[in-house]
Prior knowledge:
Layout lengths: L27 E6 L3 E7 L4 E3 L9 E2 L1 E3 L6 E2 L8 H5 L3 E3 L1 H4 L7 H5 L6 E3 L8 E6 L2 E5 L1 H20 L5 E6 L5 H13 L3 E7 H17 L1
Parallel strand pairs: 1-11, 11-12
Antiparallel strand pairs: 1-2, 2-3, 2-4, 5-6, 5-7, 8-9, 9-10
Helix pairs in contact: 4-5
Amino acid sequence: MAEPQYTVTSDSETIGEEKSSSAFPETAIGIDFGTSQCSVAVWNGSQVELLKNTRNQKLMRSYVTFKDDVPSGGVSNQLSHEYEMLSGAAIFNMKRLIGRVDTDPVVHASKRLPFLVQTLDIGVRPFIAALVSNAWRSTTPEEVLAIFMVELRAMAEVQLKRPIRNVVLTIPVSFSRFQLTRVERACAMAGLHVLRLMPEPTAVALLYAQQQQQDCR
């Protein structure tokens, strides 16, 4: 079954509520979005099930490459060599860049990464770009995350055989309110409605409690 194609909505475009006409009950997926890797899970009625990509992997690398006409991420695309990750065509570390301004030390530290990170040091969003055919292709952390979320959503829909509109994401405890809104914005650009942004320690505690309950049965 071919993965459905989606379009990432522009960051400047207003997004309305997406109404589903599906006969299926609403299903939410959970995404643990890490700096270098991510995973997607769903509650199957009795336990949490980790979904796999087309390469039978439960853990996927968190990056988006712009080397082709259509950007693709670590969900459907596999870099053939580490050189491709270092060539400037792939953008990663989205989790560290999203929602940060160009005066942030984390942003300045990211200038050492292979893709382009430029700052004006005036408290605005940093400029990032990928190297595509010897030219810089500008983008934003929100757009990169949205492209990646589109692939995760398509992967889940193929396996679950139903449309996916709702998502629960794990986020670092240290994220500011503005960073949280930018994560929500990226999800909206990918056609996903955020039910909850769950701090990572909370997610771990809930999983442990659920496993303890199962062991006691």
